[in-house]
Design brief:
This protein has 558 residues and is mostly beta strands. A 5-stranded mixed β-sheet has the order 11-18-17-13-15, with no helix packed on it.
Amino acid sequence: FQLPEIFRGRPTDGRYILEYGGPIGSSNAYSNDIVKVTHTFGVPPDSVFFRSVTAGLPGGTWWLQIGGTTKTWFLAPGGLITVEFRRDAQTDAAGGLGFLRTDLLRIRKVPSGALIGVSVATGARVSFGDVSFRQPAGVDGKANRKEITLGSRGESQVILKSIKFRNGTYFKLAGAPSLPVYLRALTGEQKLTLTFTPDRISPSFMDTLEVLSNSVGRDSALLVPMIGNGIGGIYTVDDDGTLQEVSSTPLFGGLYIEGWDKTKMNNWQVETSNVPDQIGKGRTRHLLPIYFNPRATFEWYPAIPLDPAAGDSVLMNVAVTVPRGFAQGSPRARYRVYSTGGNLTKDTLVNQNNPANTGASTLVEINLGNHYFLRGGRDVAGGQTYFGHIQLFNDTAAVSAYFGTTTNFARRDTFALLADALILRELDRLQPSITSVKTEVPLEFALSQNYPNPFNPTTTIEFSLARQAQVDLKIYDILGREVATLLQSNAMNAGRYIVRWDGRNRFGQSVATGVYFYRLVARHAALSWRHADRIATEGHPQYLWVPFFILGTLHENN
């Protein structure tokens, strides 16, 4: 196309916005176009990468600004102007997917007034991804930070009058500029650093950055949505660090590179490499000749942080790594998880021999499930108190049974038991279901008999609060030991509530059949009130239950 010399009495040379009009909701448009603008004289060519996918954009969105809302293009009359959409081997190699589309092109002169832009695609959200609530900034201090740019794209300066988050609890501005901020016409920019600091494990924290300026529409609000996920800590245990978190029987005794050290066949041998992804999360791998070492073990002792808010246990997903494509691994490796003070919570046989992995990584993660780890101190390899550890056991009998009457390749070819690294990913604790019943405000505190009683697998507990209070609701066994905490220092308004308990203890395990008590403690400035009832799980019909069993009395407490 060509631009006229004059349009409505004004020259046409200057900055323009280019917009792409494609089908609404298109998920198969190309994701990595190169858009290039060239002139037949004088003006240097300009190009940008552009995502033309319209799926997931707000309803009614039709025009996508090429290059984002901060991108403008210099166009001038006097010659042919070409706008080219291109995909090639370079864009494909960079991850481009979908069909190249050239539907409609709209060219708009930037307004003579103020126009604000932002370096975020139209309709898109700034995503922080997964951020650990235990260490939001991560190792590099930047894991929870994002930068965006506000830009002036009109022929008048932009005045930023207000920059703030609508909620501001989890998303904040780091080093917010002093207001007002003046951005010169066409090219003025203001960088903003945004932080996301979750306080718990939960998906989809959301907020909106609101920028008020003198942009077209007078004091118009530029809205930039934010989203992020709060995750728990991710802990890797290997023997590369200074902390003693692994131990083995027998001890390490040789270096394995391309062949066994024949003088160390009765020991774990160590393979080393400087390629992180190739040799587990750590950079060493331990291999043990199976039939030279019956009943040998390798154990990981993780340093799991204490979580006072969750009692003395943390819910973790447990995974161990082994190399992909290792053709002499043990076909029957026994993994044992001891998560609650030395109690065995999982015992499973796993095939380490040539495990498949569909990803690009050279590692395979073997998932050992989710477990509550008892906490109360620092776990140390060889220590007297184990608050949670994982063991790899050399079960030669299971390997022999695997081959049966066929050729035992593990014995013939000296297959190995492999120990790489342990990865623990903190998960959200299972929370009891709490329902507020809409009714008139109770006149007094009350705790009702649970129902059903006996129960299997869940039971319901009702209570009423005559005024606002902090509430504890806990389950105890007949010896008075705490079994589970359903509510702990929960600030609750006056009203009637229903709590459902799934019969699991604080470690996530189903409790044994028996008699249990529940106790409610409601606290406020002038009153402390306690009440408890006896309940039972199904399986002991010889017991007789009374509807109320009082463990405490109503009394004044300052």
